[in-house]
Design a protein that fits this description.
alpha+beta; 119 residues
């Protein structure tokens, strides 16, 4: 199957994972496995490059065909070419997305060990 990636930035890459192991009152999280595909490829630590760089459309509902990423993907499916975005629009939209994500994300825990209650 041929796969194309559409979005504002390349992926982050994390081809490894872990299981928590209890040690007394603590947990350790050593790398426990590495993911690969059928061909054994899996060292995508630097992420995957995009086929079409377009901004996220946080101003649109899910499934809205005018949302930039979905519109680009649908354009490729129907015409064989991705929707072209100017780099100015991508940069401006990325700043809006980053700001929006900070607002939506600010109260959530990030990481493997929650130390907020220890402070």
């Amino acid at each position: 199957m041929q796969v194309h990636l559409v979005g504002p930035n390349k992926t982050y890459g994390k081809p490894v994972g872990y299981f928590p192991i209890p040690v007394g009152d603590w947990y350790i999280f050593p790398v426990s496995f590495r993911t690969t595909n059928k061909s054994g490829d899996g060292n995508y630590f630097n992420g995957f490059s995009l086929n079409s760089q377009v901004p996220d459309g946080l101003d649109k509902d899910w499934g809205d065909i005018t949302e930039s990423c979905l519109q680009s993907a649908l354009s490729y499916i129907t015409t064989g070419a991705f929707k072209i975005q100017s780099t100015d629009n991508i940069y401006r939209a990325q700043q809006e997305v980053k700001t929006g994500n900070l607002v939506l994300d600010r109260n959530n825990f990030k990481g493997a060990v929650d130390t907020r209650s220890l402070k």
